[in-house]
Amino acid sequence: MANRKAKGMRAKTRHKLQSRGKVTVNRLLLKPEINSTVQINIEASVQRAMPHPRYQGRTGIVVGYCGEAAKVKIGKGESAKMLIVHPVHLKVLEGGKK
Fold this sequence. Notes:
This protein has 98 residues and is mainly beta. It contains 1 helix and 5 strands, in the order αβββββ. The termini are far apart.
């Protein structure tokens, strides 16, 4: 039973989800504007509203809020995905404000 394959959300993410240092208060209180372009950078030390690791590094547009978590649209057309992500996992891109 000890040799069963891990199938959880954080499986095979040893290097992808390494912590990026201490999380500052400014990062926790960040609230990107609606229609701003953001990049998903997962902060491993904060598990609240963490997106799936397959979306690490993807860019999207903030379309609204669900409580304090942002709704981020990734992709175009019918294949677009709507993610609910805590702002600590988002990085606002310069020149991405519309």
